[in-house]
TrEMBL record:
<comment type="pathway">
    <text>Amino-acid biosynthesis.</text>
</comment>
<dbReference type="InterPro" id="IPR000634">
    <property type="entry name" value="Ser/Thr_deHydtase_PyrdxlP-BS"/>
</dbReference>
<dbReference type="InterPro" id="IPR029144">
    <property type="entry name" value="Thr_synth_N"/>
</dbReference>
<protein>
    <recommendedName>
        <fullName>Threonine synthase</fullName>
        <ecNumber>4.2.3.1</ecNumber>
    </recommendedName>
</protein>
<feature type="modified residue" description="N6-(pyridoxal phosphate)lysine">
    <location>
        <position position="110"/>
    </location>
</feature>
<dbReference type="GO" id="GO:0004795">
    <property type="term" value="F:threonine synthase activity"/>
</dbReference>
<keyword id="KW-0663">Pyridoxal phosphate</keyword>
<dbReference type="Pfam" id="PF14821">
    <property type="entry name" value="Thr_synth_N"/>
</dbReference>
<keyword id="KW-0456">Lyase</keyword>
<comment type="similarity">
    <text>Belongs to the threonine synthase family.</text>
</comment>
<dbReference type="GO" id="GO:0030170">
    <property type="term" value="F:pyridoxal phosphate binding"/>
</dbReference>
<dbReference type="InterPro" id="IPR037158">
    <property type="entry name" value="Thr_synth_N_sf"/>
</dbReference>
<keyword id="KW-0028">Amino-acid biosynthesis</keyword>
<dbReference type="InterPro" id="IPR004450">
    <property type="entry name" value="Thr_synthase-like"/>
</dbReference>
<feature type="domain" description="Threonine synthase N-terminal">
    <location>
        <begin position="2"/>
        <end position="78"/>
    </location>
</feature>
<dbReference type="Pfam" id="PF24857">
    <property type="entry name" value="THR4_C"/>
</dbReference>
<dbReference type="InterPro" id="IPR051166">
    <property type="entry name" value="Threonine_Synthase"/>
</dbReference>
Amino acid sequence: MRYVSTRGEAPVLNFEQAMLSGLARDGGLYLPETVPVMEDIAALEGLPYEEVAYRVIRPYTGDCFTEDELRGAIARAYARINHAARAPLKQLAPGHHLLELFHGPTLAFKDFAMQLIAQLFEIALKRSGQRITIVGATSGDTGSAAIEAFKGIDNVDVFIMFPHGRVSEVQRRQMTTPDAANVHALAVAGHFDDCQARLKDLFNDHDFRDEVGLAGVNSINWARVVAQIVYYFTAAVSLGAPHRELDFTVPTGNFGDILAGSFARAMGLPIRRLIVATNQNDILHRALSSGEYRVGTVEPSISPSMDIQVSSNFERALYLAYGKDAGAIRQIMEELKAGGFTISQGALQALREFYVSGRVSEDETLAMIRTIREETGEILCPHSAIGAAVARQNIEPGVPMVTLATAHPAKFPDAVERAVGVRPDLPPHMADLFDLPETVTRVENDVEALKSLILERRTN
Ligand SMILES: Cc1ncc(COP(=O)(O)O)c(C=O)c1O
Ligand SMILES: N[C@@H](CCOP(=O)(O)O)C(=O)O
């Protein structure tokens, strides 16, 4: 399997090279040249999550990992998900199901991919003897998942930038309390888009990139996306696929999770619609409704992980919608630097073939947490509640709807308390989170300051 950049000017790579590269050298994002078709989807029914993961991921890795290596990595990664089903499906109402993706060590869907890619990185780095520096940008969940997955791994330093004051206290403490010399939590004076922009600046400085062996674990890394395809399969098959169509609603920010759904669809899963659910940072909803992708100000919300305006994986969706025209992507990404672009009619039509969108206000989010609690006893995190609210607006009789529950409510106790008057408990493995000392470095929103800090702190 060969990986190409959305901007068409970077070397073509294999899976392992693309995984270790993060952002392509032309500033684009890697994606597979072709999409493997999943044969005999019905045979996945009843298989353990790990077996489905192996069958879904294997075609993407080519010959980069042996069968034993990949199966071993999957087994170790998902042994850390604290639920027998790994991604259990619960019925919220007739025809509406919740896919719980928060039973991993950091209580968000990011663990599904991050735990696996840490295993794959470790295998690849041991084999090559290479040392790398991972830098990540987070609005809260990617950072904690990355720190948890990569802490203490040889040959790797990890620097995570989060927007100072704009993540929940639980998220911050998950990043600032781990006691491992190879991880560094950086509180950046800015919002998430600033962190992601600085990350791309670091990748686009090729001298720096090569000097530190820069790697990325955000969803700009294709390996993150591929691991997220798996749970679309397990959920869909348990609801009757491939013999029955279904819809998914996905709380969306950086467009990685829903993009994974589009690859599940391209692999043969009968997904009718992928519904983008956004908070007030609604660039994706505006873009899909009007064709205008215009960057607004990032507004803090009670769903901070989705406080994103420049949605990095949307570039991959655009590349596909523009018929893999890398020149067109280079052109619109140039326009984005000046604030935005108009999606061509043809590409918009292609996106609208299966992407639908909705936006939820803060009050509607709180109301949905309350409603679901009253109706089912479940407490949703605010991101998942946004998904549930948009899903409810889009349910059609006879077509099962799955809403992705992307985080545990205990990560966002203030929002949950505002909605239903109770603060959800953290699970036992995190019971001491508020007693541990925090280590964090404040950084300016400035690429040169970041480079100096990384050069000074890395152990490579
Ligand atoms: C809890 C939660 N829900 C939803 C999202 C949005 O996911 P994506 O960025 O893949 O669109 C995020 C952040 O990525 C998140 O942390
Ligand atoms: N919501 C994310 C933002 C980064 O997303 P990623 O999927 O590109 O890593 C977060 O929680 O950090």
